[in-house]
Structures are given as C-alpha cells and as structure tokens.
Amino acid sequence: MCDETAFSEWLAKQLKAQSKEDIQKVCDEKYALYFLMTWNIFEKTLFDTNCQFHKALNQSHDLIIRLSDDFSSEEIKALNRFFDRYKYSSECVKHLFNQKTDTTGEARGFKSEFKSYLKKENFSDLLAEKEKAVKFALCIIIRYRNNMFHGNKGVSNWLEYRQQINDCTCLMQHFISKNEQ
After folding, report:
1. 17, CA 20 to 30 Å: which among 55, 72, 94, 178?
2. pLDDT tens, 100-116?
C-alpha cells in the first residue's frame, strides 16, 4: 500500500517541473482530491458517465429546476464569487473558455450564452431565473474540470484556484443531492 509521503514523492517525480512544496500542499489540503472524487459521482449520476456541455446545458427543464431548488447560503456565496469574478473581468471569461482546453470547440458555442448571464446586475437577479442560474453553475464546474484535466495541469494553478475548486465541489455536491431527491 502506498502511504501519503510515498505518493507525494512519486507524484513530484512524475511532475518534474512542479514544486515539491506545491505538490505537498495540494496533497495535504485534499481539495483537489475532493473535487476529483466528487466529479466522478457528479458525472456518473447526472450525465450517465459522460458530461459534455451540450448534455449539461440542454438537460430537461424539470431536471434543471430540480437542481436549482434551495441553494444554501454557502452555495449562493460561491455562485456570487463566480458571478463577480466573471462579470468584472473579460480576461477571466477568456481564460475560462480557453481554446487550449476546448479541443472540440464545444464550449465556444456556450461562451455567448454564459456572457449573457453576466449582463444581469448581480447574481440575485440571475438566481431569480433558476434555469439560467443552474446553467451558469454547470458552465463553471465543467470548465474548471476541463481546465484541470486538459489545460492548466500545473499544481501551482490548482493552488492558485483553490477557492474556486472548493466552490465547484460544493456546487457539485448540491446538484448530486438534489438529483437524488
């Protein structure tokens, strides 16, 4: 069996360009592990093991409404942070829809829809339109997942986006739980 120290050392060797200290931080804090484990359940439960933008954003209206019920105050805070991050920074939107991480071009089709959500004055206005609020959250979760796996694979990037990764995990837990009801 592989212990944590052995795993961290092995991972550091595999990710040669990465800082051993950064790798140790990611391993110690476990937020990336929580995201990855939650993503596995999220994708299997809601999208039959293959989550793609068109599947996520074209879900039935009933599922979208069911997923939008009763966001907790922590989930709303997370969504507010994302809304503010992307509303006031075109650079962040550009990075979220990075062509390097969107090899199929699928996300580019939803970039304009995502930008339309940001035309609201604040997240509360978007939350009033439940379907749009859920689609906004799904866009964020899927893009962070794709950026982690296909784009910004550097551990230092995972550390930089620690809060957003935690927020995505929180939102996925909400959607999984709501789908089970």
Report:
1. 94
2. 555 666 666 677 778 88
